[in-house]
C-alpha cells in the first residue's frame, strides 16, 4: 500500500532486530523500501540488504554531504562499480548541509556537483539532501536539468514557493517525512496542501525523525503509515488513494517493478 522512499536500515540502530523491523513493515502495508547509502561502506550494505529482500528493498548509493571530505576518485570508482548491480535504483543521498557543516562548504559543493555528474553518467535518478542550502542546491540542479534522470528532494525543508519551483520547473518529486505530523511543522504542512499529490513521495528517514506518536524514538518503515495518514488528511484524500498515488510516483522515479 505504501512505499518508504528513504530509510537507512543498514545503520547500527537495527543491529539487534533488523529482520523483525523489516518483516513488521511488510506486514503493516509497506510494499517496498528504498534503503539509502550515505558513504561507500553503507552503500555496499544497502546493496547487500536489497539482495536479501529481492523486489521488496532497493538500494541507493552515494556520499552524504556530512562525509563530503571523503569524496575523490577512489569513491567515484567504487560507486561506478556498485551501480552495475541490479539492486541499485538511485544515486544519493547527496547534497548540501550548511546547518551542521560536518564537512567544509567547499568540499560539500565539490562532492555534490561531481556526484550529480556521476548520476548523469550512470543514468540514475538522484536523492537530494538540502539543509539550509536551498539556493546552492537549486543552482547545482538547474545546470543539469536536461541531463539528469529526475530526482527527489528528501525531507523537504523549503517553503511552498520553493516546492512549486522544484515541481513545476524542474519536474522533481518532493518527499515528505514524519515531521509533517508535528504540530509546529506548519511550513511542510502548507507544502503538502499546495502540491499536486502526483509529485509527492512518503519517507521515514529511519532511524531518524519518527512521526507522532513515536516522536523521539527510533523510527522504522512501518511508521510511514502515520505520515501517510497526516498527508491524506491535509490533502482531503482517503488513505488508500494516497497510498496508491504516492507508490506509483516512487515506482516511476526509481523504475521499480510492479511486484
Ligand atoms: Ni537520509
Main sheet strand line-up = 1-2-3-4-5-6-7-8
Distance N terminus to C terminus? 12 Å
Low-confidence stretches: none
Strand content: 15-25%
Sequence of secondary-structure elements: EHEHEHEHEHEHEHEHH
Radius of gyration using CA atoms only: 17 Å
Helix- and strand-based class? alpha/beta
Helix content: 40-55%
Largest sheet: 8 strands, parallel
What's the mean pLDDT score?
Answer: 97
CATH first level:
Alpha Beta
Total count of strands: 8
Query: What is the CATH architecture term?
Result: Alpha-Beta Barrel
CATH topology value:
TIM Barrel
Note the main attributes of this structure:
single chain, 259 residues, alpha/beta, TIM Barrel, 8-stranded parallel beta sheet, 8 strands, binds nickel (II) ion
How are the SSEs ordered, and which strands pair?
Elements: E1 2-7, H1 18-27, E2 30-36, H2 40-52, E3 57-61, H3 73-82, E4 88-97, H4 105-122, E5 126-131, H5 134-142, E6 151-154, H6 160-168, E7 173-176, H7 186-194, E8 200-202, H8 224-235, H9 239-254
Parallel strand pairs: 1-2, 2-3, 3-4, 4-5, 5-6, 6-7, 7-8
Bound molecules: nickel (II) ion.
Report on this model:
There is one protein chain. Strands 1-2-3-4-5-6-7-8 form an eight-stranded parallel beta sheet. The chain has helices at residues 18-27, 40-52, 73-82, 105-122, 134-142, 160-168, 186-194, 224-235, 239-254; strands at 2-7, 30-36, 57-61, 88-97, 126-131, 151-154, 173-176, 200-202. The chain has a single domain, classed as Metal-dependent hydrolases (TIM Barrel, Alpha-Beta Barrel). It is of the alpha/beta class. Strand 6 (151-154), helix 6 (160-168) and strand 7 (173-176) form a beta-alpha-beta unit. It is built from nine helices and eight strands. The longest helix has 18 residues, at 105-122. Bound molecules: nickel (II) ion. Nickel (II) ion binds at residues 6, 8, 36, 93, 205.
Amino acid at each position: 500500500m505504501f512505499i518508504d522512499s528513504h530509510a537507512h536500515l543498514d545503520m547500527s540502530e537495527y543491529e539487534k532486530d533488523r529482520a523483525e523491523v523489516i518483516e513488521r513493515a511488510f506486514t503493516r502495508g509497506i510494499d517496498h523500501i528504498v534503503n539509502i547509502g550515505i558513504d561507500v561502506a553503507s552503500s555496499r550494505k544497502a546493496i547487500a540488504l536489497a539482495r536479501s529482500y529481492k523486489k521488496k528493498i532497493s538500494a541507493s548509493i552515494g556520499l552524504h554531504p556530512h562525509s563530503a571530505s571523503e569524496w575523490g576518485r577512489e569513491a567515484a570508482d567504487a560507486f561506478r562499480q556498485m551501480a552495475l548491480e541490479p539492486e541499485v535504483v538511485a544515486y544519493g543521498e547527496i547534497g548540501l548541509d550548511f546547518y551542521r557543516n560536518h564537512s567544509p562548504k567547499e568540499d560539500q559543493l565539490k562532492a555534490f556537483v561531481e556526484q550529480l555528474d556521476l548520476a548523469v553518467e550512470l543514468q540514475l535518478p538522484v536523492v537530494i539532501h538540502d539543509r539550509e542550502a536551498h539556493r546552492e542546491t537549486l543552482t547545482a540542479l538547474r545546470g543539469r536539468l536536461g541531463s539528469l534522470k529526475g530526482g527527489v528532494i528528501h525531507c523537504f525543508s523549503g517553503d511552498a514557493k520553493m516546492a512549486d519551483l522544484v515541481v513545476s520547473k524542474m519536474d522533481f518529486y518532493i518527499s515528505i517525512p514524519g515531521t509533517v505530523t508535528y504540530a509546529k511543522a506548519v511550513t511542510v504542512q502548507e507544502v503538502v496542501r499546495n502540491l499536486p499529490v502526483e509529485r509527492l513521495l512518503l519517507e521515514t528517514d529511519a532511524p531518524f525523525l519518527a512521526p507522532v506518536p513515536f516522536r523521539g524514538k527510533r523510527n522504522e518503515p512501518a511508521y510511514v503509515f502515520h505520515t501517510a495518514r497526516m498527508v491524506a488528511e491535509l490533502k482531503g484524500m482517503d488513505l488508500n488513494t494516497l497510498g496508491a498515488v504516492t507508490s506509483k510516483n516512487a515506482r516511476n522515479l526509481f523504475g521499480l517493478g510492479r511486484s
